[in-house]
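Cont'd.
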Amino acid sequence: AQSVTQLDSQVPVFEEAPVELRCNYSSSVSVYLFWYVQYPNQGLQLLLKYLSGSTLVKGINGFEAEFNKSQTSFHLRKPSVHISDTAEYFCAVSDGGYQKVTFGTGTKLQVIP
Amino acid sequence: GAGVSQTPSNKVTEKGKYVELRCDPISGHTALYWYRQSLGQGPEFLIYFQGTGAADDSGLPNDRFFAVRPEGSVSTLKIQRTERGDSAVYLCASSLNAGVGNEQFFGPGTRLTVL
């Protein structure tokens, strides 16, 4: 069975500072990994995904994530955050097929001016 | 173009009542998914359609929950004899097809409150 652990429920960070949101996964087979963002009162939006190939994945809005198989991690990073990045971020895993996706519990990123 | 839409945006009902939640996927998307997001949790998979058929309903919590997609487009999630524990945001998503590389596009959700 696949699962995702997001260790931090909330992460406060000052504007223009770097941020890392942590995600660890478990899966018995090959994995596909995703980060979604949910802005207040909006639907989930895909930030980036890892399917295969390069372990460093770049997404929208300057975010990137690195797939680390040995550590079973897929941490999300941004070198300099903006107020508009304030949102909840969900890490998710799929073991393939039709994208039956298992989500983590989310990390609320609060950017402080 | 139009995204995934869900109606109603909010639904308040009393315990024991029946509710229907509607999802309009992006035109041309053959795959449709329902998720439930409880407070403080991530979305939880409920059911997935490929075309008109439910390809996997293993996430439905019990037989009070049922979903249909009769014409392969709009889908309705039906909940009978609602309970307070059913209160959550119900999310719908669609993708071009069911392949793993196809992004799921999410709707804004329906917030269901059972009093």
